[in-house]
Amino acid sequence: MLRRCVSCRRLRDRSLLWRVVRLADGTVSLDDGMGRSAYLCPEADCLEEARRRRRLQRGLRCAVSEAILTSLQARLERSGPQPLRQDDPWSPRASGPGVLSAPPYGDLPE
Ligand SMILES: [Zn+2]
């Protein structure tokens, strides 16, 4: 089942997203509960965007307490960096100027 992240607007399976729910009594809960939901990627960029631009508030059409954002932040720190967001491990930084750049024939006799 696909859901859209409120920050980056990407569609992802809902099992990969955080779910923030506005319950019937107007309080906001994470993961569980019946009510209007907003989804967010478990990534620092999307959390930051949601916090800065009040994406969750817009998605849920209600106030979202700082405690919600803080607990999402804590989850992110617990889970560590997401592998998909790391720098490309195959970038050519590991090579660079080295033995291969030396003139290969310099020491050969005429
Ligand atoms: Zn996102």
Can you tell me about this structure?
This protein has 110 residues and is of the alpha+beta class. The protein is built from 3 helices and 5 strands, in the order βββββααα. A 3-stranded antiparallel β-sheet has the order 4-3-5. The protein has a two-stranded antiparallel sheet with strand order 1-2. The N and C termini lie far apart (73 Å). The model has no long low-confidence stretch (mean pLDDT 84). Zinc ion binds next to loops.
Which keywords apply here?
3 helices, alpha+beta, 110 residues, binds zinc ion, Hypothetical Cytosolic Protein, Chain: A, two-stranded antiparallel sheet, three-stranded antiparallel beta sheet
By CATH, the superfamily comes out as: YlxR-like
What order do the strands of the largest sheet run in, or round the barrel if closed?
A: 4-3-5
Helical content stands at 25-40%
CATH class: Alpha Beta
